Amino acid sequence: MSITQWTTQATLVYAMSTDYNELDYLRVDAWLMDVVSVRALATAIERGLIDRLATETLLPQAVVLAMGAAEPRAAEFLLRLLLDAHVLEASGDLLGLSDTFRHTWKYRDLLMAKLDMALAVSGDWFERFGLLLDDERGFAVKSRLFEIFDYGKALSTRPEDLAATGRWLRYTTALTRYETPAVLARHDFAGYQNMLDIGGNSGEFVLQLCRRHAGLRAVVLDLPAVCALGAVHVGRCPEGARIRFEPVTSAQATWPGGFDLVSFKSMLHDWPQEAMAVFFAPGACRATARWPCAHCRACASGCRGGGSAHFRQSAAGIVLSFLQRNR
């Protein structure tokens, strides 16, 4: 997959209305509560049924035909599942999208990204959850989630590695697209001029900040494949001229300086709490003139080189965090 193909498939949204509740997008989670409904909804979307019913109502027989299924009885079963899940509703003899789902469908890119990822990693829950309880490391080796989020492939910009990276980057970009307005509503970024987003993914977070604040310039620090895809993502927007990507291949790389704002938008969300505490401790105690504190000294002696439990990411923590975010 080329970089241009990735941006096309990502269903990018470059302008967001301000006339909405910035947390309204969370309504998509209500459609991800059980696996039967998730599979039924995903199939209806794949078959083009949801797009069809977004613009018209149909008789039940026409709905079955619209699915394009070779087996009418199976199509009727899918129709009943969609009705039971309240994706569809009847009005007289006609069927259409329910009002609740129609409201949700305006977040279709986010809903489809979550459906795709939830189904892709469902085997971790149904087939390997027992392994997680008994052998965390063994689970991590076999986990589909860890296979998809293989950051090793993001170290390369070969076409096959761009394609693999693009799959999870579409997912994280969709999340960021709707999470960012909630951040903007809760913090005033007007006073900043130079921003560094470490692990900034496709640049969607800084893109929205630059769109809001014309005087802001940003640098995104991430892995090479992520930067290559991200540069195209933001490059299609006027604000992209103020965003630069810096590819790195190691946590020990020298980070650029001269910034008055540093963020970790897409980096620390799946870290164990103790690892985050250790990561932030030096900066926090420097700010209060207490560096190095006892916690930092313990970290320096016990954690340097990744040998300590502080810096070993927990497979259970990452998986449970993902499941919570996709309920």
Describe the protein in words.
The chain has 327 residues and is of the alpha/beta class. It is built from 17 helices and 6 strands. Strand 1 and strand 2 (94-97) form a beta hairpin. It is globular. Residues 1-19 and 285-327 have low confidence and may be disordered.
Index terms:
327 residues; alpha/beta; four-stranded parallel sheet; two-stranded antiparallel sheet; 17 helices; disordered N terminus
Short description:
Helix content is 51%, strand content 8%. It has 327 residues and is α/β, with parallel strands linked by helices. The chain is globular, with a radius of gyration of 22 Å.
| Physical arrangement of strands within the biggest beta sheet | 5-4-3-6
> Spans of 5+ residues with little confidence (pLDDT < 50)?
1-19, 285-327
Structural class by helix and strand composition:
alpha/beta
Rounded radius of gyration (Å): 22 Å
Shape: globular
How much of the residues is beta strand, in percent?
5-15%
Helix content: 40-55%
Topology as a string of helices (H) and strands (E): HHHHHEEHHHHHHHEHEHEEHHH
Average the pLDDT over all residues and give the rounded result: 81
Largest sheet: number of strands, sense, barrel closure: 4 strands, parallel
The count of strands amounts to 6
Terminal residue distance: 30 Å
What is the count of helical runs?
17
Topology, element by element:
Elements: H1 3-9, H2 35-46, H3 49-53, H4 60-66, H5 72-84, E1 88-91, E2 94-97, H6 99-104, H7 108-120, H8 122-126, H9 129-134, H10 136-142, H11 144-148, H12 159-184, E3 194-198, H13 204-212, E4 217-222, H14 224-235, E5 243-247, E6 261-263, H15 273-287, H16 294-302, H17 315-325
Parallel strand pairs: 3-4, 3-6, 4-5
Antiparallel strand pairs: 1-2
Helix pairs in contact: 1-14, 2-7, 4-5, 7-12, 12-13, 12-14
